[in-house]
Amino acid sequence: MSQIVELVTFKLLPSADKGAFAQASEGVNAFVRDREGFLYRSLCENPKENSWTDIVYWRDMDAAKQAGEMFMTSELTRGFMSYIDPTSVTMRHLQVANDSGCSTTA
């Protein structure tokens, strides 16, 4: 199986504090580091569109799906999710077709 990139785009709730959100993102880092098949994660902001994209690389689709099932109920991710407007969330899984050979170790 090929590696999977998980792209989750969303907006923060109007009341969200960016500093607190960034701190809550560390909980997501701890969550994914403990998942089998996790390779890499970055959280990106698009200030012009007032949106965020969470990018996670997984070993394969099975690893991505298993983590996704646990994400919504984990204590480590609860704080992060509390800042997100649930109506704005879109998620896609893409197969990696080619890469630059950067390190994929967590």
From TrEMBL:
It comes from the Bacteria. InterPro entries: Dimeric_a/b-barrel (IPR011008). This is ABM domain-containing protein. It comes from Hahella chejuensis (strain KCTC 2396).
